[in-house]
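re: ur question from earlier - yeah i can do the single chain one, its not a big deal. heres the input i used so u can compare w yours
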Amino acid sequence: MLNKIQRKRRIKLAKGKPNIKVGSFWIRNTFIILLIFSFSIFFAYKVFNGDEVVNYLLKINNLRINNSAIQDELDTVNLKYQMLEVAISKKDEELKKLKEENNELQEEVLFYEKIVGKRR
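and the output i got, formated as tokens:
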């Protein structure tokens, strides 16, 4: 008989909906969790010298900015250098053509000087 009563109680408990009373308990727990979390962050900041770490990270950021600025400047200098190389190569080609033309003209002058004679 005792078994039947216990069995009926189990079935009755399993069929019913559980009532959970929340109230203001979760607000207090949330506040405590936030307090512990902020305290642990403050403690870790003090123990691990957070100000030095922050300064180090700021220094890294500044170096990256400087590096990108120097890289941009290097790119512009390289572009100017390439433009100057192209200009110099064009001038060299032009100079070679002018030298060839000058040599041809000098040969013609020598030829006519031999035929006519030197001018005085």
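The two ends are 152 Å apart (CA to CA). not sure if urs matches, ping me
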